[in-house]
């Protein structure tokens, strides 16, 4: 993809055992030869079971960890060495929204102070943000009038909105969403997903959306990549992957999804029987 804002080319991330689950000398291939591209304003869903390597891939994409092999480029340039001033500048443009927002926020500071602190750390004008003023940004994510509150005074959904606001205040090109809604109730999940889509339409931010929930990924993604054992086993437009999955692992993930209605379940069961008859 020539216009990719983010590209991972044949990237691997291996960990050598030093005790614990891995014996000394053993190697865990968390990510093993993966190619991923992300276009401006696009959502690429990364889906797989726990241990498939998707969160490690997200950290490589965000520049939090270096690859053991392969190349990661942002806007056509490799990530700078971790900890360097150039790397800090790049980190402004690639933000991360993690699974547990309470762990991503400082309990001692108000929400507004934490957003303001992130902007000051990147030498941005705290009177302005990606959505205008700080008050306007908080209102845009559904936290109008709540900037002076502390994390313990907010619900789980409000905390995630605060983390999204902090990321958006830096006007990033890419946000890596690592299980960003998995800790929320279903109704709150839908609200956050709709918010992310609205913000994408407004600010043209690209998402690398990581989740074990294929139903959630289907709701937000333009393309989907399915990971298993550190590798991508299937990738393509979201509609194509769901309508005609090629890989047996992808088929199993889709089959595990609850059907939207009894008629949809019957149609899916009939398709399975037909596919089985062709084998």
UniProtKB/TrEMBL annotation:
<dbReference type="GO" id="GO:0005524">
    <property type="term" value="F:ATP binding"/>
</dbReference>
<dbReference type="InterPro" id="IPR027417">
    <property type="entry name" value="P-loop_NTPase"/>
</dbReference>
<keyword id="KW-0547">Nucleotide-binding</keyword>
<comment type="similarity">
    <text>Belongs to the ABC transporter superfamily.</text>
</comment>
<dbReference type="InterPro" id="IPR003593">
    <property type="entry name" value="AAA+_ATPase"/>
</dbReference>
<keyword id="KW-0813">Transport</keyword>
<dbReference type="InterPro" id="IPR003439">
    <property type="entry name" value="ABC_transporter-like_ATP-bd"/>
</dbReference>
<feature type="domain" description="ABC transporter">
    <location>
        <begin position="6"/>
        <end position="254"/>
    </location>
</feature>
<dbReference type="Pfam" id="PF00005">
    <property type="entry name" value="ABC_tran"/>
</dbReference>
<protein>
    <submittedName>
        <fullName>ATP-binding cassette domain-containing protein</fullName>
    </submittedName>
</protein>
<dbReference type="InterPro" id="IPR050319">
    <property type="entry name" value="ABC_transp_ATP-bind"/>
</dbReference>
<keyword id="KW-0067">ATP-binding</keyword>
<dbReference type="InterPro" id="IPR017871">
    <property type="entry name" value="ABC_transporter-like_CS"/>
</dbReference>
């Amino acid at each position: 993809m020539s216009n990719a804002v983010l590209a991972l080319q044949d990237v691997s991330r291996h960990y050598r055992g030093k005790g614990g689950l891995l014996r000394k000398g053993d190697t865990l291939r968390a990510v093993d030869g993966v190619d991923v591209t992300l276009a401006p304003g696009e959502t690429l869903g990364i889906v797989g079971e726990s241990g498939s390597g998707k969160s490690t891939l997200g950290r490589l994409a965000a520049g939090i960890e270096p690859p053991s092999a392969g190349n990661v480029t942002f806007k056509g340039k490799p990530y700078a060495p971790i900890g360097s001033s150039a790397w800090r500048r790049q980190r402004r443009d690639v933000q991360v929204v993690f699974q547990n927002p309470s762990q991503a926020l400082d309990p001692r500071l108000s929400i507004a102070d934490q957003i303001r602190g992130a902007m000051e750390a990147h030498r941005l004008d705290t009177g302005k943000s990606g959505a205008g003023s700080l008050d306007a940004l908080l209102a845009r994510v559904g936290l109008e009038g709540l900037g002076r509150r502390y994390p313990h005074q907010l619900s789980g959904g409000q905390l995630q909105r605060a983390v999204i606001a902090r990321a958006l205040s830096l006007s990033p090109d890419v946000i890596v969403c690592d299980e960003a809604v998995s800790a929320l109730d279903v109704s709150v999940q839908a609200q956050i997903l709709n918010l992310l889509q609205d913000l994408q339409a407004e600010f043209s931010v690209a998402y690398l959306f990581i989740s074990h929930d294929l139903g959630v990924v289907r709701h937000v993604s333009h393309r989907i990549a399915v990971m298993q054992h550190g590798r991508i086993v299937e990738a393509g437009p979201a509609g194509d992957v769901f309508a005609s999955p090629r890989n047996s692992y992808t088929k199993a993930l889709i089959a595990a999804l609850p059907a939207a209605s009894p008629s949809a379940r019957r149609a899916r069961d009939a398709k399975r029987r037909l596919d089985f008859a062709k084998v």
